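Why show two proteins at once? Because comparison is the fastest way to build intuition. When a single record is shown, students tend to memorize it. When two are placed side by side, the eye starts asking what differs. So, the first record is below.
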Amino acid sequence: MQRVLYITNQCPFPPKSGGQLREARLIEALGKDFEIKLCILSTNHSADRCNGECAASGHVSEIHIVEAEEADSFRPACLSEEFSALCASVGQDCDLVHVEGYFLFDYVPEWLVGRSVMVAENVEYVLAPPDLKEIVRAKELKVLQAARCVVALSEEDRTLIAELSGRSAGMVPNGFDPPSASSLWRSGGNKVAYVANYDWGPSRDGASFLLSDVWPLVTSRFAGAELLLVGAGDSSSLWGLVPPGANVHFTGYVASLDDVFREVTVFVSPLRVGGGMKVKIMEAFSRGLPVVASDLSLAGFNNSCRRAALIASTKEEFASEVISVLESVELQRRLSLASLAAAREMPSWNDCAAELAYWWRYAANE
């Protein structure tokens, strides 16, 4: 069994965001065929140590968590000597290294650079602020050229990687958990749901846009509409944006979205910034939910998925599309069938894990 040094900046267990869910599902599947040694440079150190070590047991052979300074992919923190030493120690007997993001590549032990798989969840320089774009571009290019294998999440990012670095990348998209029959959406009702991790800036921005600009227009024309903001993270900064008398509820983190998806009529994703394929949209499609989303929210999805959703950009378009779904059971059913048809073309997490396993074995020279 090959040994994998797995370097990431978040504990995937228990998964409370789309990014964590992706890593958790892939590790769960790959842990049966690989010995995974999980090294985490965490900005949520106490919670990860409390919850993560227990939740990850059974899926990885080792888990190590080091506290990190607050940072992001545009302004990485200073190199952690403690984490660098940890990765070097744990990686001594490993056959390859998996790295989640270019900004963690400095922690790859020198002897494993030639056996590295670097996952680019986004092409970060495209998303970087103008004053940092060239700095991020230069750093990202250096890593793209150094890694043995680069893996993207979407065809769009594969194209950007080729344009930036002149090399081809593999692709391991997001998958989804096949739903049970009881979790499938049923028509009718007046509930609208937005699911996100509110610690992530783009998610907070989307929620702010939804509450301040879209929702007052919805309730002015559909008085009984109810909005559920679902998900982990600190949503307190959004509470003051709730319009007076609006039927808005913050549920916080829910362990399973099945109960939420069964009772809502429309799933919305109003993202205006950020990148990557959105796992929660995939889950909505897989359960047959009608989806109203921004064009950016659907970045990375195939044409079938894009045709299944109602795409909106402005606050007026968003409100109009949401209301049209709430008012028409016939439209709800048509969109539900389109969502289920789109889901049949999406890969399962096991499909995605098999693709990543190929790149792991390739990097290890098998």
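Second record. Ask yourself what differs from the first in the token line.
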Amino acid sequence: MKFHQRLLLCAAMTVLFLGLAIASASAGRFSYSDTGFRQTFRTISIEANNQIGVQCEATFEGAFHASTWRKVTGSLVGLIRVARLNNCIEGSANSGATVLSETLPWHIQYEGFEGTLPNITSLRFNEVGVSVIARFRSPFGTQVCLIRSTTARPLRAIWRRSGNGEIPSGSLEINPTLPATGCIYLELAMYAVTSEISRGISTERITITLI
């Protein structure tokens, strides 16, 4: 290849990479295909003293405040308006769990993402105010615990993102330091391995894109 051709090729590659870098750097917002969502969990687990206390099916329904939001850590981006725990089964030492519905809505804060821009593989959110009454049987008798996530110790949610921007599933990270009151357990863990995410009552997938 002649010298001037190599120069032209190098210049073209430089422009291309520079354009990609500028696009990634300037993309400071996420765009959401639908502000409403439903997240369905086959199993949410609550642990006490590293033992499964109770496992329930669960549904969270909510909405984002707008169709776009800024890619800023800690931003308040949405609310969980409806939460249900159903078909709870007993673990090693428990009797059940219910949502403290009077604490709704719960807040959703944007926490960050996984992957390398512009190829985002998942989004992370902090869910604050999540409140559940859990009842455990223990050597001290039945314990009734109020578990409530806070800004300092939130329930951490992960939404997985496919290559076309669709959000097919999510999870709740295990957090062994959720504060609990009203019982002998100072801290409890609440988590879910997987869930399905859709547009409201529809089974249609939602998409989140970087703009």
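One difference worth noting in the second protein: Helices lie at 3-26.
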